[in-house]
Amino acid sequence: MSQKTFSQAPQTSSVPAASELGLAPSFGFGDRIGLATPGHIAAMRLSATGIAPIFAQQSIREMTRTSRDPQGVMGDAMDALGAAKWESQHGADADHLKTPDDVNRTAEAGFTFFTIDPSDHVDQKADDYSESQLRELFAKIKDSAPWFDGYLGKSVKLSTDAEINFDEITLLRAAVKYGPAIREAIALADHIRFVQTEANRDFEIELSVDETDQPTTLAEHYIIAEQCLQAGMKLVSLAPRFIGDLEKGVDYIGDVAKLEASLHDHAAIAEALGPYKLSLHSGSDKISMYPALARATRGRFHVKTAGTSYLEALRVVAVCEPDLFREMVEYSRERYNTDRATYHVHATLETVAAPSELGSNQELQDVYLERWETVPDGLGFTKPGRQILHCAFGSVLTHDRLGPALRQCLLDHPETYSEILAEHFGRHLSALKQGL
């Protein structure tokens, strides 16, 4: 695939521009501050043979919360790649796009991997509706599901021997839940294709349908993917909502063996209809499920991380400026109940000791930075403080004093940040490689 230089995007002449990654296993490194790429590069060079990286990655929502823009996100990554003399292929992910304007802004900055997020058009309550409610709601949105009759009564046997039966209730629920979302996703994909084709620029599309309370069923996955592909969407990966819980900043919560069986079925759909990759969102710290993901997909996966690099930045502050770290913890607690509104998390202020109750800096780190683990039954949790810091990232980064202080600490200790990130992501990448 040719690699092009984008006149609108910040570029370092010796670094190849972001390009398509195709079906290669890939890993996205989110960087909410703009200083993490050197550590991400170090992790790739140490641990990631065979896995393609995405260094420039941020959602429009995160850019708003951190007062950044697409040009800045791309420029920070490209500057770091130039300084590190990176010469290999890499992608750039414009994450969670919802509007044509989102596409236009990120396309101009040189992004090539466009993640469509139609979650605003998903009916989150569809799994709980009665048959009569489904029929009433379907009558209102049936124009968004012209595919309904074509699936009715159909049955599909997957290579895993799982069978998908498209009975009427299954289709009614899928149409009510995802009909308008599929239509909107196809429209946004058409806009991406138009913008990138007019500019003669590479692109590929990921579709995110993971932001739902209930797991994506096999029937829903099949319909969503087939309709998007038939409409001409250049789909390289799809992110279903997997079984279990994938909360921010913590490991997978659930039965990994059951998850792997489910992943095999979803991967069989991706193989039959595409092929395209399965994508894991909220992938930070989900290390226990990584080998299963890599095995089930036979290497056709994408993993997306973001907040974990911010948490490791706070670890640098904890080591180098402990008083500042304590202040950041206190402010994160103040903001938590407001900032957690857009996240599915278990941590509460009542279950995590306040800084005033913790004497030493090491105790504070143990409670708020060490990785949260589930107990063996997957139902109980330890070390929930990490989620409090995760949810408050936007408030800390845009705080008049704490945000600049955090950035300055990282600028004063770049080697420490890079080493911490290399070790942290080395564990992620090594776990994925176990399943390749």
Topology:
Blueprint: E1 26-29, H1 37-47, E2 52-59, H2 60-66, H3 70-83, E3 91-97, H4 100-108, E4 113-116, H5 131-141, H6 148-151, E5 155-157, E6 163-165, H7 168-198, E7 204-208, H8 218-230, E8 235-239, H9 256-273, E9 277-280, H10 290-297, E10 301-305, H11 307-320, H12 322-339, H13 361-368, E11 373-374, E12 381-382, H14 385-391, H15 393-397, H16 402-412, H17 414-434
Parallel strand pairs: 1-2, 1-10, 2-3, 3-4, 4-7, 7-8, 8-9, 9-10
Antiparallel strand pairs: 5-6, 11-12
Coarse shape? globular
> Would you identify the regions where 5 or more consecutive residues have pLDDT less than 50?
1-11, 375-380
Strand order of the largest sheet: 1-2-3-4-7-8-9-10
CATH architecture designation of the largest domain: Alpha-Beta Barrel
Counting DSSP E segments of at least 2 residues, the number of strands comes to: 12
Question: If you compute it from the alpha carbons, what radius of gyration comes out, rounded to the nearest whole angstrom?
Answer: 22 Å
Order of helices and strands: EHEHHEHEHHEEHEHEHEHEHHHEEHHHH
Helix content: 40-55%
Distance between the termini: 24 Å
CATH topology label of the largest domain: TIM Barrel
- State the secondary-structure class: alpha/beta
Instruction: Summarize model confidence as the mean pLDDT.
Output: 93
Proportion of residues in β-strands: 5-15%
Level-1 CATH class name of the largest domain: Alpha Beta
CATH H-level superfamily of the largest domain: Aldolase class I
Described by strand count, sense and barrel closure, the largest sheet is: 8 strands, parallel, barrel
The total count of helices amounts to: 17
Total count of domains: 2
Cofactor: a divalent metal cation
GO molecular function: metal ion binding; racemase and epimerase activity, acting on hydroxy acids and derivatives
Keywords: Isomerase, Metal-binding
Enzyme class: isomerase
